[in-house]
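To close the section, here is one more complete example, presented without commentary so you can practise reading it yourself. The ligand is shikimate-3-phosphate.
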Amino acid sequence: MTIVLLGYMASGKTAVSKLLGTALELPVVDLDDYIEQKERKSIPEIFETKGEIYFRKKEHQYLKEVLEMQEPKVVSLGGGTPCYANNMKLIHEYTTDTFYLRTSIKEIINRVKDEKSKRPLISTISDEDLPEFIGKHLFERNAFYQQATHSILTDHKTVEEIVVEIKQLLN
Ligand code: S3P
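Output:
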């Protein structure tokens, strides 16, 4: 069993995957962490020194590597992973237990505005321009996110509540 969590930056993928992994006694693979370990660079460093195209190629390569691991696991993707290199098609060749953590624009802005430097795609966007940027970005990405088997609204929910919902949908 491989469970895949996806969603926009700051949708809670990492926190939910950790608790879900504990609840189901499954190991958790965070794709961003996996890329950082393999490349021996942080994500912002990869973007800065090699550029986004290189990052997307590596992201696809390492996603495949993770999916090919036979053992049951929870995989937390990067926010852009579903939107490049036919990655959703690839994921569904391995599992249909895919969950889109859906978060409103307002909530995303609240969560990312104080930690923009960790996120290369929005680090140079001013606070003032953030709502428009995120609104457009989410609109473009939605078609990919919606390919997930399940969609879970995360606004006003605790990580525990989201994990309960995922477990119910798995049964
Ligand atoms: C990205 C999201 C990031 C990371 C990279 C690109 C994106 O992951 O993979 O900065 O394209 O949305 P998180 O969603 O975990 O922040």
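Once you have examined the tokens, check your reading against these statements. The pocket of shikimate-3-phosphate is lined by residues 9, 13, 32, 43, 78-80, 119-121 (CB under 6 Å). The first strand starts at residue 2 and ends at 6.
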